Automatic annotation (TrEMBL), chains A, B:
Keywords: DNA-binding, Transcription, Transcription regulation. This is Helix-turn-helix domain-containing protein. SMART domains: cNMP, HTH_CRP. Transmembrane segments: none annotated. The lineage of its organism: Bacteria, Pseudomonadati, Pseudomonadota, Alphaproteobacteria, Acetobacterales. Residues 162-236 form the HTH crp-type domain. CDD domains: CAP_ED, HTH_CRP. Residues 31-100 form the Cyclic nucleotide-binding domain. It comes from Caldovatus aquaticus.
Amino acid sequence: MSPLDVTRSRMDGLGSEAEICINCGSRSVGLCAPLDAAALGDMARATERIRLAPREPLFRQGEPATHVYTLTDGTARLTRVLADGRQAAIGFRFPGDILGFTPGAEHAFGAETLTEATVCRLDRKRLDALFRRYPVLERRFLELCARELAATQDHVLALGRFTAEERCAAFLISLVEAQEKRGHAGPVFRLHATRADIGEFLGLTLETVSRTFSAFRKRGLIRLHGQSGIELTDRDTLAALAAGEGEA
Amino acid sequence: MSPLDVTRSRMDGLGSEAEICINCGSRSVGLCAPLDAAALGDMARATERIRLAPREPLFRQGEPATHVYTLTDGTARLTRVLADGRQAAIGFRFPGDILGFTPGAEHAFGAETLTEATVCRLDRKRLDALFRRYPVLERRFLELCARELAATQDHVLALGRFTAEERCAAFLISLVEAQEKRGHAGPVFRLHATRADIGEFLGLTLETVSRTFSAFRKRGLIRLHGQSGIELTDRDTLAALAAGEGEA
DNA sequence: CGAAGGTTTGAGACTAATCAAATAAAGTGG
DNA sequence: CCACTTTATTTGATTAGTCTCAAACCTTCG
């Protein structure tokens, strides 16, 4: 398990399968697993599908949290901003991930697409009604939140303690692991994030990300395919770097 | 609201009062507010009080999460460690805060006291039984978890984007705000954390923390009283520094 | 093909880490 | 209560790592 896991917060281990809309109520998805057929019907009736263009916001920080989303296709990033305008990416999300759930009234962070994307959204009021009817569902969201908290804490460790090289290596490893969990096992991974996006997530400048990737390439650890394609050619060494074994 | 808030995750705004044991079931505490008298009795009967020495662990990362704790006296810090031994402090906790709740089977981080402390602990099995009986309680823990997540995300921002000076200023502001919320409004705040503890939380070395505090002292922003006493003498300037207005 | 946006690479500046030593505070035993 | 020990803090000098500013080079797309 990589210490810098961009995807730990999805429903892994809860029986999920990528590409299936959780909101739409498929039984094979973790969130819905404990629900009976009637409950699934309730959920499915309340959802709607939305297509989004690249770099289009799903919701912004501070907006009323009117819906919960499931990303069914494409990738998205989550960002948090401060009053003075500085911002950071706090995660990337992939098909199967749930976005925008919060027990509060407003979104604590924003979400925007990186690619063309499809989401399935469920009205918050209906979700609350489902909570009342099926309390076990609330437990699922609590588990999801705790998982996200653990991932964010690891991100704190990474930003506070890792060098640029370690952060980049851990990031690449976590991306490939995320890809594998989703069954997309091709050698080339396409995250449609710019170097600036990645830098915002890793607490680095885009130049440092670029330099570090170039160094990896020259050492034969990765191969770049166009702007957004990345292939890990020496995963073991990258994993060792990510674990702080650069010298040892 | 400071961006680097060590205490956002406590039950502020949910009607809590410091120094009252949540596990013990006082009605004036947020967690228990939605419960009726019978439920409070259920909770109170299931708790036990424990005294701890300074630097004594409450629980360690990876241990089975057998209990949930309320800190009733003293201060504690939370730490997360990586496989390679590197670790970071992920927060400080004060009287009234809840510690060690997780929906998973094991603690995702460790907690240890900084001072002599008293905690009140509730057996996890009994808590689960209470959840079944009073589902509204589970919603409280979800809110708590979401609050903690937001605080941790802000910490990510701070570590990724703030200079040493900004981190130290934000940290001091958040400590004083925490103190005020608890009603301990004296001018001198005592966190019993060493410079090394603070550095572990802020992603800095102990020398950098010391140098930054010294610089604040020379500029008349703070006054130090012994090793652990800190007094903010120019809070506005510190708040401006914390908000990234060092130059502007 | 040209334009726009993204990436790579370089040079220099600056922040914070490291290594090291001196000072101050807290704890201990006489 | 004092001297001694231990632990924590402060300060200094140097180094390493990352940022900033700048320019050239790719990619992608119209």
